[in-house]
Design goal:
The protein is mainly beta. It has one helix and 30 strands.
Length: 354
Protein backbone atom coordinates (compact mmCIF):
# COMPACT_ATOMS: atom_id res chain seq x y z
CA UNK A 1 0.00 0.00 0.00
CA UNK A 2 1.30 3.42 -0.93
CA UNK A 3 1.00 6.27 1.54
CA UNK A 4 0.52 8.61 -1.42
CA UNK A 5 -3.19 9.23 -1.90
CA UNK A 6 -2.46 11.49 -4.85
CA UNK A 7 0.48 12.22 -7.16
CA UNK A 8 3.24 14.20 -5.46
CA UNK A 9 3.51 16.53 -8.44
CA UNK A 10 6.78 15.91 -10.23
CA UNK A 11 7.43 18.61 -12.80
CA UNK A 12 8.53 18.21 -16.42
CA UNK A 13 12.27 17.94 -16.82
CA UNK A 14 14.05 21.33 -16.80
CA UNK A 15 17.51 21.94 -18.26
CA UNK A 16 19.96 20.26 -15.90
CA UNK A 17 23.11 21.96 -14.71
CA UNK A 18 25.94 20.53 -12.68
CA UNK A 19 28.40 22.12 -10.31
CA UNK A 20 31.84 22.75 -11.78
CA UNK A 21 33.48 23.96 -8.63
CA UNK A 22 31.93 26.30 -6.06
CA UNK A 23 29.42 28.64 -7.62
CA UNK A 24 30.04 27.63 -11.23
CA UNK A 25 27.58 25.70 -13.34
CA UNK A 26 27.46 24.20 -16.79
CA UNK A 27 25.44 21.83 -18.94
CA UNK A 28 25.27 18.22 -17.81
CA UNK A 29 27.60 16.13 -19.99
CA UNK A 30 25.84 13.62 -22.20
CA UNK A 31 28.08 10.87 -20.83
CA UNK A 32 26.83 11.48 -17.30
CA UNK A 33 23.21 11.44 -18.42
CA UNK A 34 23.76 8.08 -20.11
CA UNK A 35 24.42 6.41 -16.79
CA UNK A 36 22.19 8.59 -14.62
CA UNK A 37 18.96 8.37 -16.61
CA UNK A 38 15.76 10.13 -15.67
CA UNK A 39 12.45 11.04 -17.26
CA UNK A 40 8.72 10.77 -16.77
CA UNK A 41 7.95 7.89 -19.14
CA UNK A 42 8.30 5.34 -16.39
CA UNK A 43 10.02 3.91 -13.34
CA UNK A 44 11.65 0.48 -13.59
CA UNK A 45 12.77 -1.50 -10.54
CA UNK A 46 14.76 -4.70 -10.09
CA UNK A 47 13.10 -6.83 -7.41
CA UNK A 48 16.06 -9.07 -6.65
CA UNK A 49 14.39 -10.96 -3.81
CA UNK A 50 11.24 -11.62 -5.82
CA UNK A 51 13.04 -12.44 -9.07
CA UNK A 52 11.07 -9.84 -11.00
CA UNK A 53 11.41 -6.60 -12.92
CA UNK A 54 8.66 -4.22 -11.84
CA UNK A 55 7.22 -1.12 -13.51
CA UNK A 56 5.65 1.82 -11.70
CA UNK A 57 3.82 4.96 -12.70
CA UNK A 58 6.44 7.70 -12.12
CA UNK A 59 3.94 10.06 -10.47
CA UNK A 60 1.49 7.92 -8.49
CA UNK A 61 4.01 5.08 -7.88
CA UNK A 62 1.30 2.55 -8.63
CA UNK A 63 2.68 -0.73 -9.96
CA UNK A 64 1.63 -1.15 -13.59
CA UNK A 65 3.45 -4.34 -14.58
CA UNK A 66 5.89 -7.05 -13.55
CA UNK A 67 8.08 -9.55 -15.39
CA UNK A 68 9.52 -12.83 -14.16
CA UNK A 69 13.26 -13.19 -14.72
CA UNK A 70 15.44 -16.19 -14.01
CA UNK A 71 18.15 -16.68 -11.37
CA UNK A 72 17.76 -13.39 -9.52
CA UNK A 73 18.30 -10.05 -11.26
CA UNK A 74 20.47 -7.36 -9.69
CA UNK A 75 21.24 -4.21 -11.71
CA UNK A 76 19.64 -2.14 -14.46
CA UNK A 77 20.98 0.12 -17.23
CA UNK A 78 18.97 2.12 -19.77
CA UNK A 79 19.88 2.29 -23.47
CA UNK A 80 20.58 5.75 -24.91
CA UNK A 81 17.20 5.83 -26.70
CA UNK A 82 15.30 5.03 -23.47
CA UNK A 83 13.40 2.24 -25.22
CA UNK A 84 15.44 -0.66 -23.87
CA UNK A 85 16.65 -1.65 -20.41
CA UNK A 86 19.35 -4.16 -19.56
CA UNK A 87 19.07 -6.20 -16.35
CA UNK A 88 22.05 -8.20 -15.13
CA UNK A 89 21.19 -11.72 -13.97
CA UNK A 90 23.71 -12.34 -11.23
CA UNK A 91 22.61 -15.65 -9.76
CA UNK A 92 21.25 -16.79 -6.38
CA UNK A 93 24.26 -15.70 -4.32
CA UNK A 94 25.43 -12.38 -2.94
CA UNK A 95 28.56 -10.27 -3.17
CA UNK A 96 31.47 -12.52 -2.21
CA UNK A 97 29.31 -15.65 -1.91
CA UNK A 98 27.75 -16.68 -5.22
CA UNK A 99 28.55 -20.40 -5.71
CA UNK A 100 26.27 -20.89 -8.74
CA UNK A 101 26.60 -17.60 -10.65
CA UNK A 102 24.52 -16.80 -13.71
CA UNK A 103 25.78 -15.71 -17.13
CA UNK A 104 23.08 -13.61 -18.76
CA UNK A 105 21.68 -10.11 -19.21
CA UNK A 106 17.95 -9.70 -19.82
CA UNK A 107 16.95 -7.24 -22.55
CA UNK A 108 13.72 -5.44 -21.62
CA UNK A 109 11.42 -3.62 -24.04
CA UNK A 110 10.36 -0.61 -21.99
CA UNK A 111 7.37 0.31 -24.15
CA UNK A 112 5.95 -3.22 -24.21
CA UNK A 113 7.13 -4.01 -20.67
CA UNK A 114 8.35 -7.40 -21.84
CA UNK A 115 11.54 -9.45 -22.05
CA UNK A 116 12.70 -9.01 -25.64
CA UNK A 117 15.87 -11.06 -25.55
CA UNK A 118 18.69 -12.52 -23.47
CA UNK A 119 22.41 -11.88 -23.91
CA UNK A 120 24.91 -14.47 -22.73
CA UNK A 121 28.20 -13.31 -21.22
CA UNK A 122 29.64 -16.86 -21.22
CA UNK A 123 32.31 -17.97 -20.52
CA UNK A 124 32.23 -15.28 -17.82
CA UNK A 125 30.16 -15.40 -14.65
CA UNK A 126 28.08 -13.16 -12.38
CA UNK A 127 27.38 -10.06 -14.49
CA UNK A 128 26.57 -7.22 -12.12
CA UNK A 129 27.48 -3.54 -12.57
CA UNK A 130 26.82 -2.05 -16.02
CA UNK A 131 27.77 1.18 -17.76
CA UNK A 132 26.44 2.36 -21.12
CA UNK A 133 29.00 3.86 -23.51
CA UNK A 134 28.18 6.56 -26.05
CA UNK A 135 28.20 3.97 -28.84
CA UNK A 136 25.52 1.94 -27.05
CA UNK A 137 27.81 -0.86 -25.94
CA UNK A 138 27.60 -2.18 -22.40
CA UNK A 139 30.60 -2.42 -20.11
CA UNK A 140 29.80 -5.07 -17.52
CA UNK A 141 31.60 -6.24 -14.39
CA UNK A 142 31.54 -10.04 -14.04
CA UNK A 143 32.67 -10.30 -10.47
CA UNK A 144 33.00 -14.09 -10.17
CA UNK A 145 35.38 -14.00 -13.15
CA UNK A 146 37.24 -10.82 -12.09
CA UNK A 147 36.58 -9.37 -15.54
CA UNK A 148 35.12 -6.35 -17.25
CA UNK A 149 33.45 -7.40 -20.48
CA UNK A 150 32.26 -5.34 -23.44
CA UNK A 151 28.87 -6.41 -24.79
CA UNK A 152 27.47 -5.33 -28.16
CA UNK A 153 23.67 -5.38 -27.76
CA UNK A 154 23.19 -5.32 -31.54
CA UNK A 155 25.03 -8.61 -32.03
CA UNK A 156 24.34 -9.99 -28.53
CA UNK A 157 28.01 -10.88 -28.27
CA UNK A 158 30.82 -10.30 -25.79
CA UNK A 159 33.41 -8.48 -27.89
CA UNK A 160 36.21 -8.07 -25.36
CA UNK A 161 37.11 -9.06 -21.81
CA UNK A 162 39.70 -7.55 -19.48
CA UNK A 163 41.18 -8.51 -16.12
CA UNK A 164 40.23 -6.27 -13.21
CA UNK A 165 43.36 -7.10 -11.24
CA UNK A 166 41.32 -8.06 -8.19
CA UNK A 167 38.52 -10.31 -6.97
CA UNK A 168 34.85 -9.58 -6.55
CA UNK A 169 34.81 -6.64 -8.97
CA UNK A 170 31.21 -5.77 -8.23
CA UNK A 171 30.39 -2.26 -9.43
CA UNK A 172 31.88 0.04 -12.03
CA UNK A 173 31.50 3.70 -12.95
CA UNK A 174 32.52 5.39 -16.20
CA UNK A 175 33.69 8.98 -16.51
CA UNK A 176 31.32 11.14 -18.60
CA UNK A 177 33.87 11.40 -21.42
CA UNK A 178 34.12 7.60 -21.57
CA UNK A 179 37.87 7.67 -20.97
CA UNK A 180 38.11 5.74 -17.71
CA UNK A 181 36.27 3.09 -15.76
CA UNK A 182 36.69 2.76 -12.01
CA UNK A 183 36.08 -0.64 -10.41
CA UNK A 184 35.10 -1.39 -6.81
CA UNK A 185 36.50 -4.67 -5.49
CA UNK A 186 36.17 -7.21 -2.73
CA UNK A 187 39.79 -6.42 -1.93
CA UNK A 188 40.86 -3.10 -0.43
CA UNK A 189 41.37 -1.37 -3.75
CA UNK A 190 39.75 0.51 -6.60
CA UNK A 191 40.84 -0.40 -10.12
CA UNK A 192 41.40 2.24 -12.82
CA UNK A 193 40.83 1.05 -16.38
CA UNK A 194 41.90 3.15 -19.36
CA UNK A 195 39.35 2.66 -22.14
CA UNK A 196 41.61 3.85 -24.98
CA UNK A 197 44.56 1.73 -23.84
CA UNK A 198 42.24 -1.19 -23.10
CA UNK A 199 44.00 -2.08 -19.87
CA UNK A 200 44.03 -1.60 -16.12
CA UNK A 201 46.46 1.23 -15.44
CA UNK A 202 46.31 1.53 -11.67
CA UNK A 203 45.09 -0.04 -8.46
CA UNK A 204 44.28 2.55 -5.80
CA UNK A 205 44.87 0.98 -2.40
CA UNK A 206 42.47 1.65 0.48
CA UNK A 207 44.04 0.13 3.61
CA UNK A 208 41.00 0.90 5.79
CA UNK A 209 38.62 -0.99 3.48
CA UNK A 210 39.12 -4.36 5.15
CA UNK A 211 35.93 -5.75 3.62
CA UNK A 212 36.49 -4.13 0.24
CA UNK A 213 34.44 -1.46 -1.50
CA UNK A 214 31.02 -1.57 -3.14
CA UNK A 215 29.20 1.62 -4.09
CA UNK A 216 31.14 3.85 -6.49
CA UNK A 217 30.10 6.97 -8.41
CA UNK A 218 31.62 9.61 -10.67
CA UNK A 219 30.70 13.29 -10.49
CA UNK A 220 28.86 14.91 -13.41
CA UNK A 221 31.95 16.91 -14.35
CA UNK A 222 34.10 13.77 -14.22
CA UNK A 223 36.60 15.28 -11.79
CA UNK A 224 35.87 13.10 -8.77
CA UNK A 225 35.05 9.48 -8.06
CA UNK A 226 33.51 8.62 -4.70
CA UNK A 227 33.71 5.13 -3.22
CA UNK A 228 32.18 3.88 0.02
CA UNK A 229 34.24 1.84 2.44
CA UNK A 230 32.51 -1.44 3.27
CA UNK A 231 34.20 -1.73 6.67
CA UNK A 232 34.81 1.77 7.92
CA UNK A 233 31.99 4.31 7.76
CA UNK A 234 33.77 6.54 5.25
CA UNK A 235 33.54 7.94 1.76
CA UNK A 236 36.85 8.11 -0.11
CA UNK A 237 37.31 10.82 -2.75
CA UNK A 238 39.47 10.10 -5.81
CA UNK A 239 40.84 12.89 -8.01
CA UNK A 240 40.44 11.53 -11.55
CA UNK A 241 43.28 13.70 -12.87
CA UNK A 242 45.83 12.01 -10.61
CA UNK A 243 43.94 8.88 -9.51
CA UNK A 244 44.90 9.63 -5.93
CA UNK A 245 42.77 9.63 -2.79
CA UNK A 246 42.46 13.31 -1.88
CA UNK A 247 39.94 13.10 0.97
CA UNK A 248 38.22 10.58 3.25
CA UNK A 249 35.02 11.74 4.91
CA UNK A 250 33.46 10.03 7.92
CA UNK A 251 29.74 9.34 7.94
CA UNK A 252 28.69 11.06 11.14
CA UNK A 253 26.56 9.31 13.73
CA UNK A 254 26.51 6.05 11.80
CA UNK A 255 24.45 3.62 13.94
CA UNK A 256 26.61 0.60 14.87
CA UNK A 257 23.94 -1.94 13.99
CA UNK A 258 26.51 -4.32 12.57
CA UNK A 259 29.61 -4.57 14.79
CA UNK A 260 31.72 -6.12 12.05
CA UNK A 261 31.33 -3.60 9.26
CA UNK A 262 29.37 -0.55 8.24
CA UNK A 263 27.84 -2.02 5.05
CA UNK A 264 27.84 1.22 3.11
CA UNK A 265 26.32 -0.19 -0.04
CA UNK A 266 25.58 2.64 -2.46
CA UNK A 267 26.58 6.16 -3.39
CA UNK A 268 25.30 8.49 -6.11
CA UNK A 269 25.55 12.07 -7.25
CA UNK A 270 22.25 13.84 -7.91
CA UNK A 271 21.51 14.71 -11.53
CA UNK A 272 22.66 18.32 -11.16
CA UNK A 273 25.63 17.45 -8.97
CA UNK A 274 24.44 19.46 -5.96
CA UNK A 275 23.97 16.47 -3.69
CA UNK A 276 25.54 13.12 -2.91
CA UNK A 277 23.52 10.31 -1.34
CA UNK A 278 24.87 7.27 0.46
CA UNK A 279 23.03 4.21 1.75
CA UNK A 280 24.00 2.24 4.84
CA UNK A 281 22.44 -1.17 4.40
CA UNK A 282 22.91 -2.42 7.96
CA UNK A 283 21.49 0.60 9.75
CA UNK A 284 18.51 1.55 7.58
CA UNK A 285 19.96 5.04 7.22
CA UNK A 286 20.76 7.14 4.16
CA UNK A 287 22.84 10.31 4.10
CA UNK A 288 22.30 13.42 2.00
CA UNK A 289 25.57 15.31 1.52
CA UNK A 290 26.39 18.70 0.10
CA UNK A 291 28.44 17.68 -2.94
CA UNK A 292 30.89 20.56 -2.43
CA UNK A 293 31.48 19.55 1.19
CA UNK A 294 30.73 15.90 1.98
CA UNK A 295 31.13 16.64 5.68
CA UNK A 296 27.90 18.65 5.51
CA UNK A 297 25.58 15.68 5.71
CA UNK A 298 22.12 14.80 6.97
CA UNK A 299 21.37 11.22 8.09
CA UNK A 300 17.79 10.06 7.56
CA UNK A 301 16.19 6.86 8.79
CA UNK A 302 14.31 5.24 5.91
CA UNK A 303 13.66 1.49 6.25
CA UNK A 304 15.61 -1.73 6.57
CA UNK A 305 18.20 -2.44 3.88
CA UNK A 306 18.46 0.75 1.76
CA UNK A 307 20.28 0.22 -1.53
CA UNK A 308 19.76 1.76 -4.99
CA UNK A 309 18.67 5.33 -5.74
CA UNK A 310 16.57 6.93 -8.48
CA UNK A 311 16.35 10.65 -9.27
CA UNK A 312 13.29 12.42 -10.65
CA UNK A 313 13.71 15.12 -13.32
CA UNK A 314 12.49 17.84 -10.95
CA UNK A 315 16.02 17.71 -9.45
CA UNK A 316 14.77 17.44 -5.87
CA UNK A 317 12.75 14.22 -5.59
CA UNK A 318 14.60 10.95 -5.15
CA UNK A 319 13.80 7.36 -4.23
CA UNK A 320 15.76 4.73 -2.32
CA UNK A 321 14.91 1.04 -2.59
CA UNK A 322 14.72 -0.69 0.78
CA UNK A 323 15.86 -4.18 -0.16
CA UNK A 324 15.00 -5.86 3.15
CA UNK A 325 11.66 -4.15 3.69
CA UNK A 326 9.73 -4.57 0.46
CA UNK A 327 9.16 -0.84 0.16
CA UNK A 328 10.75 2.16 -1.55
CA UNK A 329 11.15 5.48 0.24
CA UNK A 330 10.57 8.80 -1.55
CA UNK A 331 12.49 11.78 -0.19
CA UNK A 332 13.21 15.44 -0.91
CA UNK A 333 16.88 16.23 -1.52
CA UNK A 334 16.53 19.95 -0.88
CA UNK A 335 14.36 19.72 2.24
CA UNK A 336 16.29 16.63 3.37
CA UNK A 337 13.17 14.84 4.53
CA UNK A 338 11.18 11.71 3.78
CA UNK A 339 8.02 12.30 1.75
CA UNK A 340 6.56 8.80 1.92
CA UNK A 341 6.92 5.28 0.65
CA UNK A 342 5.33 2.78 -1.72
CA UNK A 343 5.22 -1.00 -2.02
CA UNK A 344 8.37 -2.44 -3.56
CA UNK A 345 7.67 -6.11 -4.16
CA UNK A 346 9.72 -8.58 -2.15
CA UNK A 347 12.96 -6.61 -2.13
CA UNK A 348 14.15 -4.13 -4.75
CA UNK A 349 17.90 -3.69 -5.16
CA UNK A 350 17.87 -0.82 -7.62
CA UNK A 351 15.54 1.31 -9.73
CA UNK A 352 15.58 4.22 -12.14
CA UNK A 353 13.33 6.71 -13.87
CA UNK A 354 13.43 6.75 -17.66
Amino acid sequence: MSIFSRPIGLMPMPPITYLDGPGRAGTTPEGFSLNSPTGMRGLIAVDKVGGKVRFYDPVSFKEIGALDVDKLPHEVAIAPDHRTAYVSIYGPGIFGNNPTPAQTIAVIDLDARSVRDTISVAPYFAPHGMMVAADGRLWVSCDASAKIVVVNPATKKVEEAFDTGSTGSHWITMTPDGAKIYVSNKTASVGVFDVALRKLVKSIELPSAKQGTEGIAVSPDGKRVLVVDNFDARVHVIDTATDQIVESVELQGNPPTNPKRSRNMRIRFSLDGRFVVTANFASGVIYIHDATDLGRQTPMVVAKGPMGFAFAPDLKTAIVANHDSGIATVFDLEARKVLGYFDGGSGIETLTYW
